[in-house]
Design a protein that fits this description.
The structure is a homodimer of 326-residue chains. The first copy, chain A, is of the alpha+beta class and 326 residues long. The first copy, chain A, contains 10 helices and 12 strands.
């Protein structure tokens, strides 16, 4: 199987319904997209490397899902509508079964978001997937990191920490094995790590609901919130007891529970801010997008990040964000 | 040096003059671009892997240049104006000197094309560079592979084959060492491999000069021309003796000379077609873009690719295109 046959067999297929922006897809020097008149283009790129972002024996269907999901999540965090994506793929060898699985996971998610594959590259090399995703957003509607204002509420979609617990289980970490039990990693917990749900419906609803800043949680809540605070020149007071707690995390020792909740990484939930007078609209956006959101803190004019316990007392936390080169 | 410090130190810098499309650059979940009203977005992605696309000891400045150049070349082949690019980078380690060299080569070319870095990703892993580039083109002006028509002239920018000769020299191949001489690889020949010149000024001029189809030569002329013929449902008669011949190729044995010329790969020249009544406009586009072009064949209604010698006789050629998985 040559390079072009590989592409034709696994990656060239009809455009999904609703992907009207694609003028020209796979097979030319460039893809051509026609964004809606006046709209801005939102672009994000994420690279997944074997041994860093996934285990060598990962289910290829889950990997295909995740490679696109983490990119769609960036569009969600800007409030942008997906238009399409490219996939650049380095493969140690051309394994048909593996590629078919990868394509299945990739296209199932792409179809669900009307976000077609429009181009890319294939080469031989250590396994590496680089997805670049394109979306559109009306001028002034993008949810930027620098848009948080003192007095804003801080919201979290879904809940954090399960992906980290699943990761530690797969790594064989003692406390995670103890918590997840002798029966092994259950499917739901594994899916939180391997098949994250990007929050695009919520992100788009938020852009029209008066939300200010947003970020998607990939490196852990504390670090990712830090990006908003730094970019916006503000601080935050966060309430640990208002953070939704997954059942799987309840039995963890406190230190590990907080580590998972606040610095877990790979959550792909949205953390966002909105002024108190937007609460009804945020609630409506949550309902419309069928995505739970919780109010977990507020933005302060004074810089710095404080975590408060149920009694409003400061909790000293050591949690920090994931860093590939730290 | 952590991940964000690495980005700040090496990749975050002021936008080059003329890059007015960038609404939001590095540092948020997505970059935001504002294309010109009504224009289409042209997108291409190329992944460069150590050992496949470059040698481990390559000058990082040349590598930075090439990673962007091969992508700009795809925009050139569509006739699109560059707007910006993303870089996803997997690095075995964070080596400041190496990164500074890479950034130097990357930004020198980016500045020359007013094509700013707007985002990307950095991670640890086997060395891999994935650039995705964005350009714009007016509707109907893109130079597509399926647009060649019977009777069109076939043109080539610059000349082919030197990159392949340089590659074979660096590989230590006997005939290449014999041809390049005891003095070793000269700087000009090495630059043809390591610092290709994307033909963007020509590509944009062609889009307004009535050219039909175009492709950039990355895998070798024969294979790349084959993509145009297949997509357009046509054939071609090509004249070997009209192909510009670099001085370095003149002393090669015939078989190797033809291999370099017609299937060399890594040329990053434009191969394009235009109707005979556009010859004066093509000539003007060549002059305006200061890029030599040569008429080297013509498109036929009958499918198939024929190569003719100086006497108009068929030359049987075994040359074929590069394929990562063949």
């Amino acid at each position: 199987m040559g390079e072009f046959e590989l592409i034709r067999r696994h990656f060239q297929r009809p455009l999904p319904a609703g992907s009207s922006a694609v003028v020209l897809g796979i097979g030319d020097d460039c893809a051509l997209l026609q964004p809606s008149p006046g709209h801005q283009l939102a672009i994000s790129s994420d690279m997944l490397v074997e041994g860093r972002h996934f285990f060598a024996d990962v289910d290829p269907e889950a990997l295909g899902h995740k490679a696109l999901a983490v990119n769609l999540s960036d569009l969600a965090a800007m409030g942008a509508r997906p238009l399409g994506f490219t996939l650049a793929l380095a493969l140690p060898q051309a394994d048909n079964d593996w590629l078919a699985g990868l394509a299945r996971g990739l296209f199932a998610l792409a179809d669900a978001h009307a976000c077609p594959l429009v181009g890319g590259d294939t080469t031989r090399g250590p396994l590496n997937l680089c997805v670049t995703v394109f979306g559109e957003v009306a001028p002034g509607q993008a949810l930027r990191r620098d848009a948080a204002r003192a007095g804003d509420d801080v919201y979290l979609s879904g809940r954090t920490g399960e992906a980290r617990l699943a990761l530690e289980h797969l790594r064989g970490t003692g406390w995670a094995l103890a918590a997840t039990g002798a029966a092994g990693l259950n499917a739901e917990l594994r899916a939180r790590l391997e098949r994250p749900t990007p929050r695009n419906a919520l992100g788009r609803a938020l852009a029209g609901a008066g939300a200010h800043a947003a970020i998607d949680l990939s490196d852990g809540l504390v670090g990712d919130l830090g990006h908003i605070l730094l970019a916006s020149g503000v601080g935050a007071e966060m309430r640990v007891h208002d953070m939704p707690l997954a059942p799987a995390l309840r039995e963890l020792p406190l230190a590990q529970r907080l580590e998972c909740l606040l610095a877990g990484g790979d959550d792909y939930e949205l953390l966002f801010t909105a002024p108190p007078d937007a609460r009804a609209r945020i609630e409506a956006a949550s309902v419309r997008s069928a995505t739970p959101v919780a109010r977990v803190g507020h933005i302060t004019a004074a810089p710095g990040l404080r975590w408060l316990d149920a009694d409003g007392r400061d909790m000293p936390l050591a949690a920090r964000s994931f860093d590939h080169f730290a």
